[in-house]
Structure formats: structure tokens, C-alpha cells
Specification:
eight-stranded antiparallel barrel; 11 strands; 5 helices
């Protein structure tokens, strides 16, 4: 058991280092892309570009060597700085490929080992287990989950987080920093939270989703219905339509709603979602919600 815990800690430390490395690389890339734009607008020669890359390297940005024009040769592999995950080649990249690969095109993140992604999901579920959807999670657990989430978000595989068919289906809440009804809390009881999303709508009708909170083994149920408007490739405006409460399957009360909320999405694959929303008991704090199929 001690060996397994040590292995997990080692993986977490490695993940943190990898995340920091990618962040440093992103800073360097931003500077390089700016240089590429200067080249495009001023017709700089290859020699001029090469001089600029050399200057950047001297000034303390060794990782730019990985993206230097072919005319530049780095002194050693160490001078190249950390490489991006998934980069198999050590040859320099020309400006054309630099622009193609790194100008913003989508919300997708850096590629990491698929097995590592599965391991992160498993770790998050294990950490969230027994915390009442996160309500009773300790500060240490919250920090560990936050670190794992950052690694997942950096590897988001889905460009359009708001219209992807991957959203369709039933999702179960794994963890949230919300401590109110959105976390499954009804009075003193905490239950299960399920979300049903219908991208194509019901019978081809309006797109909608239902958020179900079930306590006491489903004897008490709250059902929140909403639609949404897409604001960006990672953002919904959620339009809350109605809420219904039932006991033993018998509807007791149903109310119309006119509230709205903003959901910011950061990760989506076939069976895992991460989003942020302001609201609940911690208003105006933005809470994280992690859901799984």
C-alpha cells in the first residue's frame, strides 16, 4: 500500500513539473509567434529572422531553438529546452510550420499519453469518493484535485466544447466546489446528481438538459430543466426554465424559472467533463464541476 501511495505521489510531482514545463513553453511560443508576425508584415529575410532567434537564445529563451529556422543550429540538445509532449523529432521547425502548428485555431490542448489521462480520471474519482460530491472534501484533497484538473485541461482533446456530440447523454457529478443544491444537497441530505443533455433535442425539438438531484435512494427528487445559447466555443449561457420536486415519483410542485447562468467549459472527452459556473452557496465565486459517464 505504501508503495502504491509513493507511486501516486511520484506521478503527481511529475505531472506538476510537466505542467510547469508546458507553461514555460507557451510563453516562449507567444514571443516566437509575435516574431513570425513581424516577419510576415515587414518581409524580413531568413538571415534577419535567424539573427533574432540567436538574440532570443542569448537573452535566456533557449527553448526557442526547437522552433528556429533551418539555418540555425543549436549547440546541443540541452540548449533546446524542454520539448512538447508528443514531439518525436529533434530537427528545427521552419517558420511556416511554426505558424501552422501554434497559431490559435481551437480549444484543444497539448497531447499527452492517453494512459496518463485515464490515470488522472481514476485519481480524481478516488480522491472525490466519500466527500459527498466534494462538499466535505479537505483542503488537501481540493488542492490535489485542482492540480490534476490543470493537467487534464492542458490536454483537452475537443475543439468545440459547446456543440460536440460528446455532450449527449447522462452524466454523473463526481466533484464540485459548490456546497449547495447543485452539489446534491437538499436540506440536511446529500444525494446523487445526474445531468441529462440532449444536443439534438427531444424528438428533434429544442436542445435542453435536465439536472436531477436524488436523495434517500431517489425517494425525493428535484429536476431542473434548462436550455442554452452558445456564446463561444467554450461557453454557454444557460437559460433555466423550470424546477420540479417529487416524492416517491409523485410530482408535488413545479415552478417556472427565468434565471440565467454562464457555464465555462474546459475539458471534454467521451466520458469526462469539466466546467465552471458562478452561483450556488458561494456566489459570486466560480465553482468547478467534474462529471463522468
Amino acid at each position: 500500500v505504501d508503495g502504491d501511495e509513493e507511486l501516486k505521489n511520484t506521478r503527481r510531482r511529475r505531472a506538476i513539473r510537466q505542467y510547469a514545463s508546458r507553461r514555460d513553453e507557451a510563453t516562449a511560443i507567444g514571443r516566437i509567434v509575435s516574431l513570425a508576425e513581424i516577419v510576415r508584415t515587414s518581409n524580413m529575410t531568413l538571415l534577419s529572422v535567424s539573427v533574432v532567434f540567436v538574440l532570443l537564445t542569448i537573452l535566456g529563451f533557449p527553448s526557442v531553438c526547437a522552433f528556429a529556422p533551418p539555418a540555425i543550429a543549436c549547440a546541443s540538445n540541452d540548449a533546446r529546452g524542454p520539448q512538447f509532449a508528443g514531439s518525436a523529432s529533434t530537427t528545427a521547425l521552419p517558420i511556416g510550420q511554426l505558424l501552422s502548428d501554434f497559431l490559435p485555431k481551437s480549444q484543444t490542448g497539448s497531447a499527452i499519453d492517453p494512459q496518463r489521462i485515464q490515470d488522472i480520471k481514476t485519481e480524481i474519482k478516488a480522491l472525490a469518493k466519500g466527500t459527498s460530491n466534494g462538499i466535505s472534501a479537505s483542503k488537501e484533497v481540493r488542492n490535489q484535485i485542482s492540480q490534476l484538473v490543470a493537467e487534464l485541461e492542458a490536454a483537452n482533446p475537443t475543439p468545440d466544447l459547446t456543440n460536440s456530440p460528446k455532450l449527449n447523454g447522462s452524466w454523473k457529478l463526481v466533484y464540485t466546489t459548490n456546497e449547495g443544491s447543485s452539489a446534491g444537497k437538499l436540506g440536511p441530505l446529500v444525494g446523487e446528481v445526474q445531468q441529462l443533455i440532449r444536443i439534438d433535442g427531444r424528438d428533434g425539438g429544442e436542445q435542453d438538459y435536465y439536472n436531477f438531484v436524488r436523495v434517500a435512494g431517489g425517494a425525493i427528487e428535484g429536476a431542473l430543466r434548462a436550455t442554452w445559447d452558445v456564446l463561444a466555443k467554450d461557453k454557454w449561457q444557460v437559460n433555466f426554465k423550470s424546477v420540479r420536486f417529487s416524492v416517491l415519483g409523485i410530482p408535488l410542485v413545479e415552478m417556472e424559472l427565468s434565471a440565467v447562468g454562464i457555464w465555462r467549459k474546459s475539458f471534454l472527452d467521451d466520458d469526462f467533463r469539466i466546467l465552471y459556473a458562478a452561483g450556488g452557496k458561494n456566489v459570486p465565486k466560480e465553482n468547478i464541476y467534474i462529471l463522468a459517464k
